[in-house]
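To: structure subgroup
Subject: Chain for Friday's discussion

All,

I'm putting the inputs and outputs inline so they're searchable in the archive.
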Amino acid sequence: MLAKARRAVLRRGVSEEDADELVQDAFLKVEQYERVHTARSQEALLVTAAINLSIDRARRRARAPFVDLDNIHGIADRTPDPAQIVEEQARLRHAADGLAQLPERTRRILLKRRLEDLSYAEIAASEEMSVAAVEKQVARATLQLMQWMSEW
């Protein structure tokens, strides 16, 4: 019975995914209808309902081809709301304050590593330090900033 309704909808040019959905919707409508009425042929009613639903869907798409009601969440605005923007700006200001509290050389080393993506060896050469000393500076600065941000 379901297969017959599916074939009828597929013959109308509906995709396989949409056909399954239409048959499911039609089945639910038939079930709801039969709670109140009696049908001579449940199969005929199911096929007719599925075809009618496919016609309705085609008409809806013809009127508004740019609107895909099945994917309404795909057009949702994903930009943060104003409260989130203000909160993130405050968080960035707090992080900048923590960064400003680091000693000049430590801050410079950390920024070279994190923002400029320089290797420890490149930083060591530019700061005239050993690689191990640069690694320790970066680790201490990172730890200090993490503690600073956790207090916020």
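Points worth raising on Friday:
The chain has a mean pLDDT of 89.
The CA atoms of residues 113 and 119 lie 7 Å apart.

D.
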